[in-house]
Amino acid sequence: MFSISDLNVYHGDTHALRGINLTVKEHRFTALIGPNGSGKSTLLGAIAGNVLPKKGSIFLDSKSVSSYPKREFARLVSFLPQRTHTPTGISVRELLVQGRFPWRTWLGKWSNKDEEAVRRAASLCEVEALLDRPLSALSGGQLQRAWIAMTLAQDAPIILLDEPTTYLDVANQLSLLDLLAMLRDAGRTVVAILHDLNQAAQYAEELVMMRDGEIVAEGATLRVFTDHNIENVFGVRSRMLEDTVTGGVICIPSSLET
Ligand code: ADP
Ligand code: MG
Questions:
Q1: Is 126 among the domain residues?
Q2: Is the pTM higher than 0.85?
């Protein structure tokens, strides 16, 4: 899977990633957590081949990410960046069709396999009834589901998502996380940036905790989801309670003043 060593990335003068070493495990759900500006998006973007390292390497299996032909890489890895803009004048169906680009040849015909992938992705993300709607006529939550459906239509075994739950209400957040867990159970590898610590701890079995461009703690959630690490990363104290239903741990952050 991904193997990252001594990764250093700059944005202008900002040293955004400082010597990152990380192995992303296959068939796992890994969550990246950390405060704003800690380098999460830069790291995910670098893994997706969208951000050029100044120093260090990122390998996918035995090949450097930067050496993959674009389409070959996109058959293996689908990446949903943090949304910056929504294309106007296209329908949900047209958005999902764009997800099929790595599988289509130049001037290639739309195949049954393409159609099947779009239908499956639309069904998983519950956007079937919206396929003919223009993106401009969707609610925030529907639009986010459409983007995720496009990512799934790409049919890659590795799925990278930058803050996929951010625009969703809590019910839609949970149904998305359930979907990602289901995809992981079906053999995919999921890496997502999540803001809700308890959701990250509940759904991801691997956590990567970042601060100031560095990894402060990483590994099995059961081991690294501790008050000590949370204070180290976010600068807030927290009480850790046992969830008697799941056997997991719930974090209740509290102000440093109390
Ligand atoms: P996060 O996703 O954890 O909020 P980012 O990876 O977006 O963090 O940003 C890491 C650091 O790099 C921050 O200091 C941010 O201001 C800076 N940065 C990110 N993108 C750019 C950019 N395009 N140009 C300049 N600085 C950037
Ligand atoms: Mg970010």
A1: no
A2: yes
